[in-house]
Amino acid sequence: MSELDVAAQVLELVRAAAGGAEAEVSVDRSVLALTRFATSHIHQNVADDTTSVRLRLHLAGRTASGTTTVTDPAGLRGLVERTVAAARLSPADPGWPGLAPPAPVREQTWDEATAHATPAERAERVRDFVAAAEGMQTAGYCRTVRWTGAFANSAGHCATGRTASAALDGIARRPGADGVARLLAGRLSEVDGVVLGARAAAKAAAGADPVELPPGHYEVVMEPNAVSDLLNNLALFGFNGRLVTQRRSFAEPGADQFDPSLTLLDDPVLTAPYDSEGTPKRTIPLVEAGRTVAVAHDRRSGAEAGSASTGHAPPDGPSSWGAIPLDMALAPGDPDAPPAAEVAGPVVDSSAAELVAKVSRGLLVTDLWYTRVLDERTLAVTGLTRNGVWLIEDGVVTRPVQNFRFTQSYPRALAPGAVLGVGATAARVPDNWALGGYLAPALHLASWHFTGGASG
Amino acid sequence: MSEFDTAARAVQAALDAGARYADVRIMHRRTESMSARNGEIEDVGQYESAGVGVRALVGSGWGFFAVPDLSETAARAAGARAAEIAAASARVPGPAADLVPVAASTGSWASECAVDPLAVPLSTKGDLLVHATKAMVDGGADVAEGSYAVWDTAKWFVSSEGHRIDQRIRECGADIAATAVGEGETQRRSHAQYGTQGWELIEAQNLLERAPRLADEARALLTAPLCPAGETSLILGGEQLALQIHESVGHAIELDRILGWEAAFAGTSWLDLSRLGDLRYGSELMNITIDPTIPGALGSFGFDDEGTPARSRDAVREGIWVGVLAGRDSAAVAGLDYGGSVRSDGWARLPMVRMTNVGLEPGPHTLEEIIAGTDDGVYMETNRSWSIDDRRLNFQFGCEIGYEVKNGRLGRMLRNPTYTGIGPRFWQSMDMLSNEIVAWGTPNCGKGQPGQIGHTGHPAAPARFRNVRVGVRA
User: Fold this and answer.
1) Are the CB atoms for A361 and A393 separated by under 8 Å?
2) Do the chains contact at B86 and A95, CB–CB below 8 Å?
3) CB distance A405–B420 less than 8 Å?
4) Where exactly are the structural domains of chain B?
5) Which residues of B36-57 are buried (b: 16+ CB within 10 A; e: fewer)?
6) CATH class for the domain made up of B3-221
7) Interface membership of B121 toward A (CB under 8 Å)
């Protein structure tokens, strides 16, 4: 039975059990396979093939939702009975935003070979990564994902979708120095373990014997992995329409809040083509040449804001997290630039190297880690650097530096005049908790506030 | 066919496909959650998840496969698939894999539950959240949020060594938060508690009584002075100390991190196994146990997800590091003789080393005595942000609220209090510890790839630490 058949069957069961209910059904089948390695061998090699069915219904002014992985007839009946019963017992929901109307959805990236990749094919990428590190200890994963899904609601909207992706995320390690390389792609064939392993090893090799520098404000070049953390926090706490309505976000549509060199999109390429309310996803500009132009909404937050859903109900269904743009893409500095080339040394690629060459004194930052928001409204974030920091002097990387702790308002670091350069090309970086990722160029920023060093 | 029989078929299929060891977890979990904002229910959800996860060892390679289908056919296929994946691991082989011995247990265990949380009417639960959030709005909160969550998990474990164990673990908890929005910043006060208990745990939190005070404090924080920066004596409330234990002790003593198995994501540990038994972790007041047997604490169980019976073990004794959180495979690599701390986030995930209940034994003081004995310092309460490096050494934690401590008394309220330090240096500075232990529950511990969410417990009490850097450097 297809995902769409299951969705239709659940809607039929709802009609029989509660004829007047407004109902929406999502059926998601995800085949997630992850070949994980550490101490240079495969130590956790996992896969699961999971179908889940989510039902949300609004009945007599009350709303409830239910999910099950039990998709036999009894399981689906149980889902409907429980959810109908929950709706009848639930408190009133005066803010119910109604169902998504019928609308077409777009096709997503699909590669048959990636969708059906074998454990052996993933292991080959791991083997190449390990070999390219030339004896350094390595750790990471190679992942493939196949998602197929269907959505149907009682307002007559139905949609199907499919997408597949692959990712490799690994580190090479020397005593006291780790180097990282990551790539998210629509095709497993684009994931080259040799290139990524060599890139990670080059960083680790260049990171030996780091010096400790004093805390303070430094000019920085943030590589794409570090920039992806900026995008993640901007998505969760900045362009989240619910937080904007509650005045808990800095984002203010119509205001020039960012440097004019920045254009930020939400651009779903490797994730579902519709959100959990069935609203089609599309490419949405959030920032155009520094001006905030939109924030993300699901149907409820959109209604509260006097706006419409932008297709950003979370994958597991609307929740108190709000509406989050999960496919953030920061436009590269030169859309016509050829792909970035590998370069010698610790800099990730030629695109970032062009930014490094313009720094008279500053830091090259590979990656950020364990970032947490100190204040939502200013998006002041604390966290640490990871996987390599280097001092840049007169446009040249001169020596490795020990990791820093920082406390920095992200919007302030990206404010008008604060961005000194945007990498000509952008890299696709996998997210650790979602199946998508971020498109991020390197950034040259005028100031980043490091508040402590390795010694505390 | 019983769940045990289905699991046994999956084990046999893995063995038939070449595995030299296999184990199977069948789990059936029902989850319920509800959230409210500003006096209105926002979301009511009920979730059911059931499936079978098979772990197989072929040569020195592990494989895992899971599917949400409890039929015999699906279970057999999952067993064979796990062995196939394990065989592929040999393409990048490691050292010989082994398991420390565990007696093949057959047994049952259930957590204590006085009031079945799934049997409490949704309308009753909804009323609680509506009234609590409304009370916070009335008390001055701009955004008042409340939620509860219930997990009811039945699981069956079978291994090729002869384990046949079933458990039923019921967990629940609630969280209320008041946010006040000022010019350019927000302030928040909250209360949360989770445990392996029934609805009685939530009733005991007295959310309706707490709500107005939380809102009042959030509003007052908007105009409170900033926490000054500098080195001072720091007194932490018990809930914040629970988080401190979780991040700077619990994760640091995870053996998979120490061995480098989590190096790429969660990170490693500053601890070196060669120092187990003689490394000074903290002051002599620091006694930390790993104890999954504490009734009602969120990290409690009867058997871990490798079939090892729950038992209490020392992690730090009088300040000396003496124990780790381990699984059967990691313990074998490390030359230790115990596992017992392996769990999975449902049937679809590989079991891995997780905290159970990791917490402090009581000290000799009370919070009142600690404050009275402090001439100059800061008292902080309730975590607001947490960040720590990938070796679990360099941390910065922010709390929701702080107070000056002057001449043995609490003084002015302070906003945006943070403190930072290096784990062992911080723990060695602990010179007063209260006896007012509460086992705080952490329901959102992330680890592993694919990501898993763990439920952990942390017995903790207020304590004082000397010469701690507070505030943020200008």
Assistant:
1) yes
2) no
3) yes
4) 3-221, 230-470
5) bbbbbbbbbbbbbbbbbbbbbb
6) alpha beta
7) yes
CA distance A86 to chain B (A): 7
Write out the two tokens for B345.
Answer: 């986030």
This model of the complex carries an ipTM of 0.94
Which positions 358-387 of B are in contact with A (Cβ < 8 Å)?
Answer: 384-387
Candidate from A36, A39, A455 with C-beta closest to B449: A36
In this complex, is the C-beta atom of A433 within 8 Å of any C-beta atom belonging to chain B?
A: yes
Contacts of B143 in chain A (CB under 8 A): 246, 248
Distance from CA of B435 to the nearest CA of A (A): 30
pLDDT digits 0-9 by tens, A3-50 = 999 999 999 999 999 999 999 999 999 999 999 999 999 999 999 999
Please give the full DSSP string across A225-255, using - where no structure is assigned.
Answer: HHHHHHHHHIIIIISBHHHHHTT-S---TTS
Non-local (6+) Cβ contacts of A323 within 8 A are: A240, A241, A242, A295, A296, A297, A298, A301, A302, A309, A310, A312, A313, A314
Which structural domains are found in chain A, ordered by start?
A: 3-204 (3.30.2290.10), 210-452 (no CATH)
SS (H, E, C) chain B: CCHHHHHHHHHHHHHHCCCCEEEEEEEEEEEEEEEEECCEEEEEEEEEEEEEEEEEEECCEEEEEEECCCCHHHHHHHHHHHHHHHHHHHHCCCCCCCCCCCCCCEEEEECCCCCCCCCCCHHHHHHHHHHHHHHHHHCCCCEEEEEEEEEEEEEEEEECCCCEEEEEEEEEEEEEEEEEECCCCEEEEEEEEEECCCCHHHHCCCHHHHHHHHHHHHHHHCCCCECCCEEEEEEECHHHHHHHHHHHHHCCCEHHHHCCCCCCCCCCCCCCHHHCCCCECCCCCCCEEECCCCCCCCCCCCECCCCCECCCEEEEECCEECCCECCHHHHHHHCCCCCCCEECCCCCCCCEECCCEEEECCCCECHHHHHHCCCEEEEEEEEEEEEECCCCCEEEEEEEEEEEEECCEEEEEEECCEEEEEHHHHHHCEEEEECCCEEEEEEEEEECCCCEEEEEEEEECCEEEEEEEECCCC
Q: Is the Cβ pair A382, B387 closer than 8 Å?
A: yes
- At B391-446, the pLDDT tens digits run 999 999 999 999 999 999 999 999 999 999 999 999 999 999 999 999 999 999 99
Q: Is A414 helix (H, G, I), strand (E, B) or coil?
A: coil
pLDDT band per the 50, 70, 90 thresholds, residue B473 = low
Q: Give the pLDDT confidence of A364-404 residue by residue, as tens digits.
A: 999 999 999 988 899 999 999 999 999 999 999 999 999 99
Q: Which residues 161-200 of A have a C-beta within 8 angstroms of B?
A: 169-171, 173, 178, 180
